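User: Is it possible to get a 3D structure for a protein together with its bound compound? The compound here is adenosine monophosphate. I've pasted both below.
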Amino acid sequence: MSAAETRLSPRFLIVGPPGAGKGTQATQIAATYGIPAISTGDIFRANVKNETELGLKVKAIMDAGDYVPDSLTNELISDRLQQDDAADGFLLDGYPRTMQQVEFLDAHLAAQGQALEAVVQLVADRDEIVERLRKRALDQGRSDDTEDAIRHRQDVYLRETAPLVETYRERDLLVEVDGLGSIDEVGERIDAALTARGFQPVATAS
Ligand code: AMP
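Assistant: Yes, that's possible. Here is the predicted structure of the complex:
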């Protein structure tokens, strides 16, 4: 597809190591393209907070910085993608994270004649991220966010999720963006990269 063609209501995914600022950028991309940002982490956290059956099952796993089993996560996302607001496009944040989730999502979308259209990867140096998160934990007095816990989440990401990026690269879906810099700088890089791929914003994020 040439850059001159426009694509409306896209199906996007944003990936990057924990602490790379995915959530913030996801909100902005979603506003720019008029699509919902769907974060499995946020949905799990809401369940933990409300002490739902799912929340009680996943709390200890999340506290340890490990991944919730694929079966639970796939079911959650399949329900969410069937809601009306996701019918014409969405931005996934934090899903898929394992190869099995990639395959589930492919099948789920294909069953509806759909597919992902771009995967935005925030690229950031591991040590810089660990340092950034350690400072944030100190500032916010989050004693649970120890350096060990932070490093563990980075390791899980590198082991489980970084390989997925190669799958999307092979499909020519990958849009790599330097994730280090201010929120606005990174946001502008994302906008420029997606526009260059022909994705047309429907609104300007303020
Ligand atoms: P996040 O806010 O995306 O970093 O997610 C917080 C936590 O939720 C993760 O550390 C996992 O325990 C769990 N989680 C979120 N998304 C997934 C997923 N796609 N697969 C497995 N676990 C997930």
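The chain has a mean pLDDT of 90. The CA atoms of residues 30 and 78 lie 19 Å apart.
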